[in-house]
Write a structure and sequence with these properties.
One of its GO terms (molecular function) is phosphatase activity. The chain is α+β, with helices and mostly antiparallel strands and 421 residues long. It folds into two domains: 150 residues, Rossmann fold, CATH 3.40.50.2300; 238 residues, PPM-type phosphatase domain (Phosphatase 2c, domain 1, 4-Layer Sandwich). Helix content is 38%, strand content 26%.
């Protein structure tokens, strides 16, 4: 075995793994073609030959070659013209082009390079120089073929990923439908009041949830929760929590219990927060946490007992239009074992309303780079005091969308609006 540069010759023949396998010799001189072809065949190449540029183009189209050795001066079509036409036609694989010429001036070399040639050999051709030029061509074409194969691999991978993404996207769309089904889409009529909901995830699925459950004919539990983060993980935790706050019996709802007489009652809101906090820390291994505002509402007496766990202060709008934000804040759930929570009591008059919402509402960006905050939310409710139920929540969503110029919300939006008749 002999080694010439980077090109390996086994017993003087080209190795099968080399990029240059097929060579086309183009020259109007039969003797020159015969001499070059004899060198190339001795080295193990498959060789084709043509006497004119047009015949060479036809051969390239029919058979395909890795390297072309072409004379500069030929009748009909010169070597540079043949090269330019070959480049114009293109092909699946790059063809390395070497011009054979008696000309060696800088202008001639520049003309050949502009036509698409890769290299030059000055006649008469020295076999050692020819082999060295093929070595360089083999190295360059090897890199080019490797890049082509890598690009094919990338293309195949991207195609597979696109299929995976499309499947995941379909699954997420279905997941969003299921998550939306957890929140009533229309206002709910209750004894002495009406309950309406806002739910708008920032992505396919979100970490927010609002809902209610019956306690007694004139009592309900009302809650708003927000799991940290976004996406699938947050949505799965939200679904788990929804299952623990649904149903009308204690065995299906962690917020309910039975009295000594066997009647169904609701735990104190602060007790519910403590229970969920302890259970979450014990049962779920995750870096996520969640905030919660949960209240028991006496619809007849128009009273509410509410506890917060890191959730925004509830909004209370009086019938006359004024807005208040009572609340104690509290720690989020799932962070500290043994955290304690406070209860507040709220009283309402006919026409008053209570709004529980996630921080995606008050933290909505404003054009000046700030956030909506409680003052901005109060302004919206005062401005839309004449709207009731779902219309009021639609107006809130439109006003928030206008603040961000119709772009996607950076966080989930959710809320539950209870209005006393």
């Amino acid at each position: 075995m002999t080694v010439q540069g980077d090109l390996i010759f086994k017993h003087g023949r080209i190795a099968p793994e080399d990029a240059v396998q097929r060579v086309l010799v183009v020259d109007d001189s039969a003797s020159q073609r015969k001499l070059l072809c004899s060198y190339l065949r001795r080295w193990g190449f498959q060789v084709g030959e043509a006497a004119t540029g047009q015949a060479a183009l036809d051969l390239c189209a029919a058979e395909g070659f890795d390297l072309v050795l072409s004379d500069w001066t030929m009748p009909g079509m010169t070597g540079p013209e043949f090269c330019a036409e070959l480049r114009r036609r293109g092909g699946e694989r790059y063809v390395y082009f070497v011009l054979l010429t008696l000309k060696a001036s800088k202008d001639d070399i520049a003309q050949g390079l502009e036509g698409g040639a890769d290299d030059f050999i000055v006649k008469p051709v020295n076999p050692h120089e020819l082999r060295a030029r093929i070595t360089a061509a083999n190295r360059i074409l090897g890199v080019e073929r490797e890049l082509i194969e890598k690009n094919r691999l990338v293309t195949r991978t991207l195609t597979r990923l696109r299929g995976v993404y499309e499947g995941l996207n379909r699954d997420l769309i279905e997941a969003r439908k299921l998550q939306n089904s957890l929140v009533p889409t229309n206002s709910v009529s209750l004894p002495g009041g009406t309950l309406s909901f806002l739910f708008q995830p920032s992505g396919h699925v979100g970490g927010d949830l609002v809902g209610y459950f019956p306690v007694a004919p004139d009592r309900i539990g009302l809650y708003s929760l927000d799991v940290s983060g976004h996406g699938v993980a947050s949505a799965l935790i939200t679904a788990r929590l929804a299952a623990r706050l649904s149903g009308a019996t204690p065995d299906r709802n962690d917020a309910l219990c039975r009295t000594a007489s066997g009647a169904i009652a609701m735990l104190q809101p602060e007790e519910i927060c403590a229970k969920l906090n302890s259970d979450f820390l014990r049962e779920v291994e995750t870096e996520h946490y969640f905030t919660l505002a949960i209240a028991e509402i006496d619809l007849t007496a128009r009273r509410a007992w509410l506890a917060q766990a890191g959730h925004p202060n509830p909004l209370v709008q009086r019938a006359a239009g004024g807005v208040e934000f009572p609340g104690t804040g509290g720690l989020p759930l799932g962070l500290i074992e043994g955290a304690e929570f406070e209860r507040i009591e709220l009283e309402f008059e006919p026409g008053d309303r209570l709004f529980l919402y996630s921080d995606g509402v008050t933290e909505c960006p404003t054009p000046d780079g700030g956030m909506l905050d409680e003052d901005g939310l109060a302004d919206i409710f005062v401005r839309n005091a004449g709207l009731r139920g779902q219309q009021a929540l639609n107006a809130l969503s439109w006003d928030l969308s206008a603040l961000i110029d119709g772009q996607d919300f950076p966080d989930d939006l959710s809320g539950a609006l209870l209005e006393f008749r």
